[in-house]
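Anyone up for a design puzzle?
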């Protein structure tokens, strides 16, 4: 988990990688009268000491952005092959060539055997003891625009509606993902995508309007159960359900 400590707003805003980092930056950037000067987020050790919240931050508002674990599982798989500079395949005990040929189902088989409290933070659980120690206000990424007033009421701030899907970074990632990960999903999802004529085929010639296909297209009952077992802590802590 990484955090943005915004002293001007007396705010700690945290997010687990693959759970809405772009959304968090867009949220903070859209705050009325505030222009963020931070460049990189901070680790939790910046405000936690000896297992407790530092006195300096006790009166700060603390928010944490989370995302549907079923959706995030697909995102974690995509980042494995769409961002080779991260070399995340090493955390799964494989080389780049093996990672590029990995199917979503096989990726989950590997993840079931990993300790998600110590693995690279791109794959780890969203939930941790920090939720209790810090006392976060939990905000679900997919609901953020509908709940922006509730978030403002909690923080006493003036966040505005965000549009993370329009960011250049999202489009760049979408283009890489289209070129790599999605056409590597061999044993689940690909046939469904073609059968339903989704944006995977319809938008291929116009990448500026690319958005991820709905994560459910990559699931069958077995895969749903696998993701539940892998991310059970997140699913139960943040009250997520899979709906076909």
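Challenge accepted. My sequence:
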């Amino acid at each position: 988990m990484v955090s943005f400590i915004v002293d001007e707003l007396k705010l700690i805003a945290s997010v687990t990688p693959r759970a809405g980092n772009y959304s968090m930056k867009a949220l903070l950037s859209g705050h009325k009268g505030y222009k963020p000067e931070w460049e990189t987020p901070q680790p939790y050790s910046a405000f936690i000491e000896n297992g407790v919240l530092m006195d300096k931050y006790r009166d700060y508002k603390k928010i944490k952005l989370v995302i549907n674990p079923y959706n995030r599982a697909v995102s974690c798989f995509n980042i494995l092959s769409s961002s080779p500079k991260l070399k995340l395949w090493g955390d799964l005990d494989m080389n780049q060539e093996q990672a590029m040929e990995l199917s979503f189902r096989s990726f989950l088989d590997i993840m079931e055997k990993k300790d998600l409290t110590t693995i690279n933070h791109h794959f780890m659980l969203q939930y941790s003891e920090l939720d209790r120690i810090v006392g976060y206000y939990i905000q679900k990424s997919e609901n953020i625009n509908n709940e922006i007033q509730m978030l403002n009421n909690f923080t006493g701030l003036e966040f505005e509606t965000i549009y993370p899907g329009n960011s250049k970074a999202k489009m760049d990632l979408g283009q890489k993902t289209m070129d790599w990960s999605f056409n590597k999903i061999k044993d689940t999802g690909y046939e469904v995508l073609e059968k339903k004529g989704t944006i995977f085929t319809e938008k291929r010639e116009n990448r500026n309007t690319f958005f991820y296909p709905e994560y459910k297209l990559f699931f069958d009952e077995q895969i749903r159960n696998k993701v539940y077992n892998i991310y059970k802590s997140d699913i139960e802590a943040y009250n997520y359900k899979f709906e076909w």
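A detail worth pointing out: The two ends are 29 Å apart (CA to CA).
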